[in-house]
Amino acid sequence: TWLSSSARSYMSAIVDRGRHRAEVSTNELAKIAATRGIPLSHSRAELMQAIARDEQAKRRAGTAPHRKETRHENGGRAPGTTGANAGGYPTSSARGDVMEDFNASDEEDMLADPEGYLVGATSMVWEDELYTYGGLAPEGEFVDIILRWSGKDQSTELQARAANPDVGIPPGRYGHTSVVVDDKLYVFGGQGQFGCLNDLWCFDFERCSWSRVDAAGEPPAARTGHCACVSNGVMFVFGGKDVRPGMDSVAHNDLYGYDLKEREWLPIETRWRRPAGGDGCAMTSMNGVLYVISPSDTMMEMVLWCLQLSAQGRLRWTQVPRVGQLPTPRTDYVAALFGANWIVHGGRVLLQDGVLGDTYAFHFPTAEWGRFDPESDTDPRFGHAGSAVDGALVLLHGRRDASSPEAGDKDSGVCVAINLEEWCAFPEHAPEGDGDGVDAAFDPHAHR
């Protein structure tokens, strides 16, 4: 009864997620309090009372703060809507609007506090729409929801259900991997509340339901900060580390394949040298070749490796010659495919303090690296998520470095975008005849 009806309605408008009553998480309360200059309390009740009193005072004074409605729904799309327009996401016919939507400035936005952003979430694109899953909140909350993004700070939580109520949905995590295959999202590993994980989950976008994957074979060891991609019906997992309280972390540089059709995990044996692995790696595939970028063993440079999946016998990692300007040594960066280009953005500087906001591209047809014009640099961030969609690299969340000289004049919003068509020096698509060759199907059993 201490929370006035006006305050209750205000709180509900901010955080209601389609439930029958408002259930405000401590993380959301802390964000709201921070925007009002209210000192954070260790007591949840005291924090809510302080917000309610401040709301009542502002309403009496006629200065209620600006608030932005966060939309939620009970599934992937509202009935009767199709395609990108279902969530208000800009279509390819209005690419100029993409940059405006994701880079729109709103100084009064309550959630535009960089200290409140998630770390270690993953982003993915399904049917030309952008989604994020998981992440670690500043207060230590392990996030377990999927959000669909339609612009700066405009997100819709999917009310996902468990395909099997006895199994439930995956526990919250960060530092995991997420890959999309057809209408399915596969999530593997990551850091959970009680340690690193090696479980595999599948989210069905059409049914809006989670199911745990019971796979044959021995899965990769528990890990976080690893990388994953899909090629020829196999999800590959590489690198990462296992972090245990009171113990030294264990870095992994092994390669596993999960056969999506056979639902089986298999170790992929390679000979001679291999990428350093650990938590500074990223992986993608192009025309039947796996590519991994990771710091060198000395952490003094970034090295790009490739693995020809159609090779006979035991596979061998090969270093790609250094051509052009490679990214400087870093970890916790974003890597995303844009046509025939692999985009790398931001991250944390290795071996010294510093956070980056620069962008690089690797052009597969010419095997050449290039740095974007510094004019395209964003505010420095690491541990963020990002995907290429509608000609833009959309970046979400992550930690910031407020002391960086580049941070002052850059948009530090939860969601910013870089126009790839304007800033990428390489063409989006490979020349005709150089691109989409079909390689022989990869047989993971042949490389055990």
How does this model look, in words?
The chain is mainly β. Helix content is 12%, strand content 33%. The protein contains five helices and 31 strands. The strands form eight sheets. Strands 1-5-4-3-2 form a five-stranded mixed sheet. A five-stranded mixed sheet has the order 6-10-9-8-7, with no helix packed on it. Strands 17-21-20-19-18 form a five-stranded mixed sheet, with no helix packed on it. Strand 24 and strand 25 form a beta hairpin. Helix 1 packs across helix 3 and helix 2 packs parallel to helix 3. The longest helix has 18 residues. The protein starts with a helix and ends in a 25-residue tail after the last helix. The N terminus and C terminus are likely disordered.
| Separation of the first and last Cα atoms | 65 Å
- Residue-averaged pLDDT, rounded? 79
How large is the radius of gyration? 22 Å
Low-pLDDT windows of residues: 1-23, 63-96, 105-112, 434-448
Query: How many extended strands?
Result: 31
Helix % is: 10-25%
* Strand proportion: 25-35%
From the helix content, strand content and strand pairing, which structural class follows?
mainly beta
Report the principal-axis shape: globular
Number of helices: 5
Strand order of the largest sheet: 1-5-4-3-2
Main sheet attributes: strand count, strand direction, barrel closure = 5 strands, mixed
